[in-house]
Amino acid sequence: MPDGVELTSRFESLKVYDDPLEQGSDADFLKSCSGTLSEYIQSVLTSIPNCDESTVTLPSLPPERYRVIPKQEFTQGDVSECNFRYSPEDSPVKAKICEAKRLSLKDSLKPVWHFEVEPNSSVHYSPGDAFGFFIENDSHLVSWLLHRFNVTDNLYVADTKSAPPKSFEVSSALRKQFDLFSPPKKSLLRLLGEFCVDERERRILLLLSSDVGRDTYRSLFIRERVSLLDLLVAFPSCEPPLEKVLDGLPFLMPRYYSASSCYESKENTIDFVFSLAQYNIIAGKRWTRKGHATGTLDRICTQWDKRSLDDVQLTIFHRPSNHFRPPENLDVPYLMVCAGTGLAPFRGFIQQRRRKYTSILKTATGDYSMGQVYLFFGCRQVGEFQWYLDEIENDMSMLPNAELFVCYSRSTDDAMYVQDLLKKHAEQVNRLICSHPSSRIYVCGDGANMAKGVQESLSDILSEYHCSNKEDAKKFLKKLSDEKRYVQDIWFWG
Ligand SMILES: Cc1cc2nc3c(=O)[nH]c(=O)nc-3n(C[C@H](O)[C@H](O)[C@H](O)COP(=O)(O)OP(=O)(O)OC[C@H]3O[C@@H](n4cnc5c(N)ncnc54)[C@H](O)[C@@H]3O)c2cc1C
Ligand SMILES: NC(=O)c1ccc[n+]([C@@H]2O[C@H](COP(=O)([O-])OP(=O)(O)OC[C@H]3O[C@@H](n4cnc5c(N)ncnc54)[C@H](OP(=O)(O)O)[C@@H]3O)[C@@H](O)[C@H]2O)c1
């Protein structure tokens, strides 16, 4: 191994973990992390029933697809420039980050950032639309992987299933095409097991992939988010050929972010908001893993400095929303409900409404009507999202019949969730929904908890003020949903 390579690649691989520098020297850290990880995995494995390996059911091995070969051996098809895997209907554009501002407080539970991107060609979008972001894997991590697999950078990955066959430089393929952090599939675990030299490591991985390892699989990979890279650290005798591992990896998927601006307000840049996804892997130990996209975006935003980050290029594409967009006519009343980063699209809704209203004022003869709009928003504490809220409040104050309601879930005197805030203003909420045959309800953000709570509150409110009972209220909401008047843009993750 050339001098310094091991140290550098090991050090850089630690970027997956939080603040490696605080953990002592790079080599010490990796050593401790590999020991702790193996210990942890092995302690979890005590929950696998004691059984004879030959009696368990193993998954099939991943189907063969890739070959890793020297360039000169590639005879069919072309050596292509490796790109992300997008669908034919997506039209990706290059974009550069041109602004980043923190929306969370220093002591907030998780960082939240507003950032702006400048696409290299103008993209016409509507409020409520999202953009897909392709974020490549960290190049240092890729170097670490190549080193771990004993693969030199002048090799190529041939995709035998693409028509015509294509091949890519191995490092580009690892950066742009493969998801290295989603939970390893059972077929991949079996493959890793088959290639362990150490009998104990082999047995552990095979059991983890099998039917008897189902519960342990869930706790290690789904709950604790142990990844392929962790396994490669914890099972040093595992030496599969890289091409076989690629067969077992999913494609790297885009992450979606709702535009938080409106096209008419600024045509050349698009605003977004994200909160950092963090997973505490290996409960009770010291690692926090960051989400693939938000981890990278957080690093970029934290180091934000216009001069040094001028060349941070992203690949994004427009994903229009079918129904999550404000009504065309300004007289249609609507209710917006959100928590945390779910605020993003509604900033665009309000910006657009204000622009439309201003242009009506310039041209109309007084013959216009503005429907009621309410925005209900919940976050943890006063000061979070503050400049967004100030801006939105200012825009709403310029609009007739527009009102902002905010609550804080960790306030010391009046803590509540956004669905409780809806109930606090139940009569107004009911009046808005029932006042117009085309009124709308929009909900954005976390689908697992918040959106359910909001739906429950809406049925309580409607059953109290509009319908005869809760059953009728639920049917009423279902009807609104079928008519695309109750629209949710929600996301389940983890
Ligand atoms: C329409 C839409 C709009 C969104 N808008 C915002 C927003 O404005 N702000 C915000 O903070 N978040 C938003 N999200 C959530 C966001 O896309 C990411 O899921 C979130 O930021 C975590 O990504 P990560 O890569 O950091 O985390 P990771 O942990 O790396 O990824 C999250 C999990 O989701 C899976 N996953 C993510 N994207 C895909 C995909 N495209 N296909 C299949 N699986 C996938 C990953 O495999 C992983 O298991 C939105 C989601 C959708 C669907
Ligand atoms: N278009 C989309 O699909 C879209 C757009 C933007 C964001 N998102 C996604 O939405 C999710 C949430 O975003 P975030 O990270 O900004 O949220 P967050 O910071 O985790 O939470 C925001 C607020 O919601 C509260 N909350 C927790 N449980 C709740 C519940 N059951 N009901 C109501 N409120 C609840 C939190 O309170 P406590 O912590 O005090 O309990 C906090 O005050 C993320 O997954 C993000 O990726 C999706």
Automatic annotation (TrEMBL):
Signal peptide: none annotated. PANTHER family: METHIONINE SYNTHASE REDUCTASE (PTHR19384:SF84), NITRIC OXIDE SYNTHASE-RELATED (PTHR19384). It comes from the Eukaryota. Its cofactor is FAD. PROSITE patterns: FAD_FR. GO terms for molecular function: [methionine synthase] reductase (NADPH) activity; flavin adenine dinucleotide binding; FMN binding. It comes from Galdieria yellowstonensis. It holds the Pfam family NAD_binding_1. This is FAD-binding FR-type domain-containing protein. One of its GO terms (biological process) is methionine biosynthetic process. Residues 90-327 form the FAD-binding FR-type domain. Keywords: FAD, Flavoprotein, Oxidoreductase. GO terms for cellular component: cytosol.
